[in-house]
Specification:
The chain is α/β, with parallel strands linked by helices. It is built from 13 helices and twelve strands. Helix 5 crosses helix 7. It starts with 6 loop residues before the first strand and ends with a helix. This is 2-hydroxyacid dehydrogenase.
Length: about 325
């Protein structure tokens, strides 16, 4: 059946169900994940698609891009682009849009939610009350967050939003980044190790990918030390999760708050057994307001690609083409 709407390949269902319907209203959508035989579908129809929509969580692998010889534009739901296969997208010459800027506040809010929960034992306190332990026991004394030293690893937009919140908690902020940020009022630490030594709460807001893989390792966790907390709202890959589980178990660090994991949706089983870590299912951007704003940008990126040949928000290596 022919249609006047442009054909669009949607890699899988998106994190905001309305966006699935909005795409279907505007485009002639084929949902790859719903095909009974996706490989055969791509072999038979791959050449018909110039547009692809995916998300940071799903990404898009090389073999799919290789099966789309006429691909021109990708619109991805999310700010991370580590799961999009850069080499094959560049080979294809496809322009890639994403959704930076609109989720900074909610991700920074979540960093603070995890930080306060880890420091004050909020989730553990909730379990304590629900178990009925309050009638017979005292809840353990916890750690103060206000006035402490906050280390931010990755001073981009989200790191900056975390730093602004820290001001309200009278925290002293320092950060490590590939290079110092011009005009930043915060102290720059020359290495991640130096940052870990200099803070009570280490918040990871660095991009994922090979360049940052397992940078938070045994050595960094030991530098953070038995009074220190690790908060990760970036990518699970930045942290050596097995090393983190050992450090939490042996109390070589005090606690952690994690929204992201190395192998989502499968946190390392040992983490589930520990009371000094708070776990969230990668939901830092998961508010109505932010997911709506992300969806709007996914749609605007597509419209802009069709109208001008480039998305309004383009991943740096795509824009450099
Ligand atoms: C998304 C994220 O919710 O934007 C990102 O990079 O990790 C999250 O905000 C998730 O990946 C959905 O695609």
């Amino acid at each position: 059946m022919s249609s006047s709407r442009p054909r669009l390949l949607q890699y899988g269902k998106l994190p905001l169900p309305q966006l699935d319907s909005e795409l279907a209203q505007r485009y002639d959508v084929s949902l790859l994940s719903a095909q009974s035989d996706p490989a055969r579908f791509l072999a038979e129809q791959g050449a018909q698609f110039e547009l692809l929509v995916t998300s940071a969580a799903m990404g898009v692998p090389a073999h799919v891009i290789d099966a789309l010889p006429n691909l021109r534009f990708v619109s991805s739901f999310g700010v991370g682009f580590d799961s999009l296969d850069k080499a094959s997208l560049l080979r294809r010459g496809a322009r890639v849009g994403y959704t930076p800027g609109v989720l900074d506040d909610c991700v920074a809010d979540m960093a603070f939610a995890l930080l306060l929960d880890a420091a004050r034992g909020l989730s553990a306190a909730d379990r304590f009350v629900r178990r009925g332990d309050w009638a017979t026991q005292r809840f353990g004394i916890q750690t103060r967050a206000s006035g402490k030293r906050l280390g931010i690893f990755g001073m981009g937009r989200i790191g900056g939003a975390v730093a602004r919140r820290a001001a309200g908690f009278d925290m002293q902020v320092s950060y490590h980044n590939r290079r110092p940020v011009d005009g930043s009022p915060h102290a720059y630490q020359p290495s991640l190790l130096a940052l870990a030594r200099a803070c009570d709460f280490l918040v990871v807001t660095a991009a994922g990918g090979e360049g940052t893989r397992h940078l938070v390792n045994d050595e960094v966790l030991d530098a953070l030390g038995p009074q220190g907390f690790l908060i990760n709202v970036a990518r699970g890959s930045v942290v050596d999760e097995a090393a983190l589980a050992r450090a939490l178990r042996d109390r070589r660090i005090a606690g952690a708050g994690l929204d992201v994991f190395e192998d989502e949706p499968h946190p390392l089983p040992e983490l589930l057994t520990l009371d000094n870590v708070v776990l969230a299912p990668h939901v830092a951007s998961g508010t109505h307001e932010t997911r709506r704003a992300m969806a709007d940008l996914v749609l605007r990126n597509l419209e802009s690609c069709l109208a001008t040949g480039r998305p309004v928000a383009e991943v740096p290596w795509s824009a450099a083409q």
